[in-house]
Design a protein that fits this description.
The structure holds two protein chains of two kinds.
Chain A lengths: L7 H9 L5 H19 L7 H14 L9 E5 L26 H8 L3 E6 L33 H8 L5 E6 L5 H7 L2 E4 L19 E6 L2 H11 L29 E5 L9 H16 L3 E5 L7 H16 L18 H12 L2 H14 L5 H21 L5 E5 L15 H5 L6 H6 L3 E8 L5 E7 L5 H13 L13
Parallel strand pairs in A: 1-2, 1-3, 6-7, 6-8
Antiparallel strand pairs in A: 3-5, 4-5, 4-9, 8-10, 9-10
Helix pairs in contact in A: 2-3, 7-15, 9-11, 9-12
Chain B lengths: L9 H10 L6 H18 L35 H5 L5 E2 L2 E2 L9
Antiparallel strand pairs in B: 1-2
Classes of the chains: A alpha/beta, B mainly alpha.
Chain lengths: ~475, ~100
């Protein structure tokens, strides 16, 4: 029997053919999570009653929206009214938002079944999902390895078949890198395409919410639902949302795909290089033309990001002071002592490291040398892309230089961990849409993904190219559950 | 720009921690000092880039300008909802420790 969670259409067809009810879907999600998640730990916690009552609400509404009955896991930094939203941080313990994020309103209005509390690195600081105060999520392909991060719980939940889709957030690769390491599709939209209202802020000039799914078709459907202008987010762009699903099943004959030599240097795993080169061959065989492009400032992207990201994070995290919500220290003291003790107890080590780095970069005497310099280099990185897109429609690279690494392998070396995102960070700095697509396994049997990037608001190009690849290959059918 | 490496001292780490309302014990400050130093050493490479006449990016989409709306009164989160997550409250207020020290 076809797995009803392998795609939206199998889930919806199953419901439409009345082989099962929304209540069956709800109990199936809860059952799968309680069995598979013992090893994977994609969710911080699962509340069966929440899922069941969610299904009842969809039933009651009587509406059959575009995501009718599709379970969608939600990264725990996206606010759902009344549900625990912790960012995997002790400092937000017990926080139940008084409102829904805009993306949540959109999912609910299309009949999606929300599954909350997907695990993540604390405040999305990390590339391995090990910085969660609730403990790490494991990679469904090999539970001794990390799922990637920071949306590691979202990617692992989809890859393990616990849910057919998830929302993550991507500040420097936090959707695409875990999608690549878990063998699923992950999409970071153009900056401003999806409302950030209700996404707990990490770095406001870089953050975007996006979908993680088993295939490109579902990715397009979910992206279509969550995109759009929102007056609650002044950085969201007032521009019509195309029907992304119309870009499916189109040919790519004559499409120009840029290949930047800067992304194919030493330091890439052999298996990653081979699979991505094979993917390039597939595109050529489908009639796409590959062109060499140059992105000479690529090597500065990580440096640039680790000034801008922490600088914005250190100010965004100023709000956690033990007054309005979340953790407050039990220690007695005056106001300032209360702030300090609360923050010391509440933040994990990586959060503290980034707060310190950001505060330093913004502090008197260093602002120009670090923050302003980084914002200028950011312009150079974006200019590289503007130049490159004169020659091509999209750019293809590996998503991550390596496949999934072992737990604890990079925890004592923050810089090495930061370099995990070397290929995904540039799209955030330049605000570009980018997608990671599975393209096979390495010699260890671990998933490899390639990344496609395009000009701002050229999501359709990415979907067209990604879907053409998927239609002509079998990689997306590989499933971690077949191995377990 | 600066040929010699800007190393961050432990004293600076402790100062920055105070600015960020964090406090580090001696061994934490030492560990942070060494980790932040290696990160900052790496970041020094930004100085290789000539940015003489480059404008900084403050918004990635250059078409985006300030966004305004009419200043009309609207509803907001009810007081009870706003206070529901407060670690401590008194009546309709967030309660905090004493700010002014008694003599």
């Amino acid at each position: 029997m076809e797995d009803i969670f392998s795609s939206f259409s199998s889930c919806k067809n199953w419901l439409a053919s009345q082989k099962g009810t929304l209540a069956d879907i709800a109990s199936s999600v809860a059952d799968r999570i309680s069995s598979a998640d013992k090893d994977i730990r994609a969710f911080i916690d699962v509340d069966r009653e929440e899922i069941t009552s969610g299904a009842r609400d969809i039933e009651k509404s009587g509406k059959k929206g575009r995501l009718w009955g599709v379970p969608v896991a939600i990264k725990n930094n996206i606010c759902i009214k009344g549900r625990l939203t912790t960012c995997a941080s002790r400092v937000l313990e017990g926080f139940r938002p008084p409102y829904n994020a805009t993306v949540i309103e959109k999912l609910l209005s299309e009949g999606a079944l929300l599954v909350s509390m997907a695990n993540m690195d604390e405040f999305a600081f990390g590339s391995s999902c090990e910085n969660s105060c609730y403990g790490p999520t494991r990679n469904p392909w090999d539970t001794s390895r990390i799922p990637g991060g920071s949306s590691g719980g979202s990617a692992a939940a989809v890859a393990s078949g616990e849910v057919p889709a998830a929302l993550g957030s991507d500040t420097g690769g936090s959707i695409r890198q875990p999608a690549s390491l878990c063998g699923v599709v992950g999409f970071k939209p153009t900056y401003g395409r999806v409302s950030r209202y209700g996404l707990i802020a990490f770095a406001s000039s870089l953050d975007q919410i996006g979908p993680i799914t088993r295939n490109v078709e579902d990715c397009a459907s979910l992206l279509e639902v969550i995109s759009g202008h929102d007056e609650m987010d002044s950085t969201s762009v007032n521009r019509d949302v195309p029907r992304y699903t119309d870009s499916l099943s189109k040919d790519i004959n004559g499409m120009k795909i840029g290949i930047p030599s800067e992304y194919f240097t030493s330091g890439i795993d052999k298996g990653v290089k081979e699979r991505v080169e094979e993917a390039i061959e597939v595109f050529r065989s489908l009639g796409a033309e590959t062109v060499d492009v140059s992105l000479p400032h690529t090597k500065y992207a990580v440096s640039c990001y680790y000034i801008i990201g922490p600088a914005e994070a250190s100010s965004n995290l100023g709000r956690y002071d033990g007054v309005h919500y979340g953790h407050r220290t039990k220690k007695a003291g005056d106001m300032i002592e209360m702030y300090i003790a609360t923050r010391n107890e509440g933040f994990g080590e990586e959060a503290k490291r980034r707060i310190l780095l950001g505060t330093y970069a913004l502090s008197s005497g260093y602002y120009e040398a670090y923050y302003l310099k980084a914002q200028k280099v950011r312009t150079k990185i974006a200019d590289d892309f503007r130049q490159a897109f004169r020659k091509c429609d999209c750019i293809l690279t590996p998503t991550s230089p390596t496949t999934a690494f072992k737990l604890d392998e990079r925890m004592d070396d923050p810089l090495k961990m930061y370099l995990s995102d070397i290929f995904t960070i540039p799209a955030n700095l330049a605000g570009l849409p980018a997608v990671s697509v599975p393209c096979g396994l390495d010699e260890k049997g671990l998933p490899v993904g390639f990344q496609l990037m395009a000009e701002p608001f050229a999501e359709e190009t990415l979907i067209r190219a990604a879907h053409a690849f998927e239609r002509n290959t079998e990689h997306h059918k590989l499933f971690s559950g077949d191995k377990r | 720009m600066n040929p010699e490496k800007k190393t961050i001292t432990k004293k600076t780490v402790e100062h920055v921690a105070r600015l960020a309302r964090l406090s580090l014990d001696d061994s934490q400050a030492g560990k942070m000092q060494s980790q932040l130093s290696s990160i900052l050493d790496y970041i020094e490479q930004l100085n290789e880039v000539d940015t003489g006449d480059t404008q900084p990016t403050f918004h990635v989409l250059s078409s985006m300008k300030n966004v305004f709306r009419e200043d009309e009164p609207r509803g907001s989160i009810p007081v009870e909802d706003a206070l529901a997550n407060a670690p401590e409250r008194k009546d309709n207020f967030f309660k905090v420790p004493k700010i002014i020290k008694e003599n």
